Amino acid sequence: MRLPLLQRLFVLIAALFMPIASSGQDSKDQAATERAPTILFVCEHGAAKSVIAAAYFDKLAKERGLKYRAVFRGTNPDPALAAAAVKGLNEDGIDTRGWKPELVSKRDMNAASGIVTLGCVLPEKDDDAGKVVEWNDIPSVSQNYQAARDDIVKRVQSLVDDLAKKEQKTKRGTRPRP
Fold it and tell me: Rounded to whole angstroms, what are the CA distances from 108 to 39, 40, 44, 47, 177?
């Protein structure tokens, strides 16, 4: 059974916070990632779309003061990041040294607070259907990095905004009333 997009997004945002043990972005502080709720971005090769999404998610979440961190994975990972993604991210000021595509695992999916697929199908997806949001119509990174990046960043910004609102509601709800 497929849930409507808004309902899936709500479920993603409402998911319990659980960290992922290994980030895949080797240059990141792994200890911080282990303590932070994690959004798992998955594309087929784990080399372009999910990498861009994770990079911008971390940047925007940090700017908003959110504790969330991102991880990228692939369902059929390439041995290295896509050249177009590396070039584009580097031009955008994001250092990708040490980042390598990794196969998405059941452990990754179980530990994630939310999962965003970018034009791929997860293995055993039904088990995690409540926390999966699909972004299926993103342009090809190799054909037009800027168009792909802009589309991904727009969606990531919306996700970060929703998570920030949820955190604010949680903070307000836990404060003692005067």
Answer: 10, 7, 15, 17, 38
